[in-house]
Amino acid sequence: MTLDLDLILTLVNPVGAFVFALSGGIVAVRNKMDIFGAVVLAIITAVGGGTIRDIILNQPVFWLSDPLTIWCAIAGGVIAFFLHSLVDALKPIRWADAVGLAIFAIAGAAKTASLGHDPLFVVIMGVLTGTGGGVLRDVVANRDPLLLKEDIYATAALVGAGLYAVLHFSGVPESWAFASGMLVAFVLRGAALIFGWHLPKSQP
Amino acid sequence: MTLDLDLILTLVNPVGAFVFALSGGIVAVRNKMDIFGAVVLAIITAVGGGTIRDIILNQPVFWLSDPLTIWCAIAGGVIAFFLHSLVDALKPIRWADAVGLAIFAIAGAAKTASLGHDPLFVVIMGVLTGTGGGVLRDVVANRDPLLLKEDIYATAALVGAGLYAVLHFSGVPESWAFASGMLVAFVLRGAALIFGWHLPKSQP
Amino acid sequence: MTLDLDLILTLVNPVGAFVFALSGGIVAVRNKMDIFGAVVLAIITAVGGGTIRDIILNQPVFWLSDPLTIWCAIAGGVIAFFLHSLVDALKPIRWADAVGLAIFAIAGAAKTASLGHDPLFVVIMGVLTGTGGGVLRDVVANRDPLLLKEDIYATAALVGAGLYAVLHFSGVPESWAFASGMLVAFVLRGAALIFGWHLPKSQP
Known about the structure:
Three copies of one chain form a homotrimer. In chain A, 75% of the residues lie in helices and 0% in strands. Chain A is mainly α. Chain A has one domain. Chains A, B, C: It is found in: Cell membrane. Chains A, B, C: It is a multi-pass membrane protein.
């Protein structure tokens, strides 16, 4: 079985973008933005992480050849704007977001590995792809960046991308490395949702 | 009549940069920044949108070959710092800013169209070029991003860039598309200034 | 005596990154971030300025070929997280930070000059390299950007990079220009630390 990375990304990017866009739209509504602000924040959340990754790696920005991903982000922002109380109350959204996180993180790591970069950067770009959009969303909305403070969220991306990197550089078939990393990131994030896990903080 | 996009941009970029820089400098003074902060915020406001556009489109950043635009931004920041109460009180500044918005938005859309991108991205890059500097200014100054919340501002850029895109892809001569988009963006922004129009918000 | 810019940067980048990372980690602890947030903020502070510089100049991002710099940034973040009260109390850190500021600012200016850019951009990129990471740190941590408000900090980078530019474009040997710029930036920052100098503010 071979894994065609480009094909997988073409399929999953729009889905991940839509789910992430919902969270961007909800933050916009909470911050009293208008519908334009909701769409802007939705797009930033959906594609921000992957955009910074591609710029740093000096690759063409992924969504420039993929308008569908941006349309899905716009749709997520509009839906969040008009149906925010419904979307906000939906527990399944958190699980869809966990899927998005896992997919984006490993996809970002795999793209970086395919360019021949150091394992350290494979992991960093995985985390950046999975979480950068959420950090940008909070920065633009003038909120404290929640994912740097709470929950096992970025950590799930880190562990998943780390596992992918270990398997990839061990010569494990790409499809196994990809699937294992994604599964671990998703399970860890899911467990954090169920059990309320978080990382320790320092006492300032 | 032919429209030389490069020539037009060379002429209008410094003017737009100066006007936008004034608003950056005023925000800096309100936030108790020193003169260095005023100049930094002026430059970010003036060229931030176009810089992000060029980086995403993988084009040379426009002001690297055009020091005059940066000098105009610095001048705007210095003037705003020393004459902020005068500048702040000037109603005509709002109208100059509306001209800057219209020019930058359509110029950004036209540059993107000239590179052969999808109409969706032509519109997005137009809005980004017109408004990205203002969002960056508010993010760096740690303010809520006003243009995502209030007034018909980004919307004017959106409608103008949208009209430009429709005309451009319909085969209308470039100069007509450019002028029509700019005029509509300016008139819409001007009407919002006069009548206090704004977009509806969702009830969070 | 010849100055090999690449060699110098390879030697000093990790040191500067480590020192800057400490300040990022301390801000993270103060903002109640977890250890992941501390490492993220440490990396952003350490390499943010140089990363934006390289992206704007369309150069390969410097740390992609230099994992040691990122490891030093991670180490700085982890140390600041676990030993923050110790690190925070250390006066010598401020002096190490002044050395980092001076090195990064002149290194950024020299890299820009070596690419043949206008003197204005040599100075701007010097300031950006020296101070951009600190501004990004404050933006992500949702703080007011202190260096746009207080002390002779960015100004030290500006004067040092300006002196470097004057000497470089006057044909002074590169090693003299580099050393003079660095020394002046460091002395000015040091004097500001000792005497509490700051720039005047406008009365809003």
